[in-house]
Amino acid sequence: MPGFKIRIAPVEIAQPEAALRPLEFSQRWDSPYDNFGLRPAVSVFVTRPAYIRICVHACSADVEVGGVLVGQWCADEQTGEEFIVIKHVLPARHTRQGSVYLTFTQDTLVDLHDQIDKRFEGEKIVGWFHTHPRMGVFLSHYDTFLHHNFFPEPWQVALVVEPFSSVAGFFIRQENGVFDPTRYFGFHEMDGAFGRSVVRWQNLQKVEVESEGGSPYE
Length: 218
Ligand SMILES: [Zn+2]
What we know:
10-stranded mixed beta sheet, Cytidine Deaminase, domain 2
């Protein structure tokens, strides 16, 4: 369509929202690559409804499926550390699905931006997700290409879910700009403390809360 522009990147210089990290009542899940001295540019918080939607959608088909992750990009008021909060999941409707790849088309992104404007005003695409049925958790060369082209912000992440063995991980750019397609990170499950966790991804390890001068929940 001549003259038609896709809003992949915002026109103005975007700034993170000032907020406190919602650590209270969150359950941290570490990947095998967390705590190896890597410094992801953002930490990831996922609401329970968003986590459940991801899992339902991931199990909906035997081929690769995917979509975008919608929510907020924030900087902690006290520490300045950046984080994203994934609140909504929008399955991509116009992807070209095959057994071994998923891609985004221009129609996909137009459709997704329309949905966000209508339903989640003020929120952002903080990343994307797709499944790797029976393939494992990594980003292919093509996935990496998609990530850099359609999700170029330092705070935008890529989630890969393998629904059959129930493993998953977040690929996040590091503070120095390095993006490793083989090493993924865990996340914070919001409202997942006190044994109420709904996370079932087998490759992530629950991080027990350390009591430093009293429980943060008191
Ligand atoms: Zn892939």
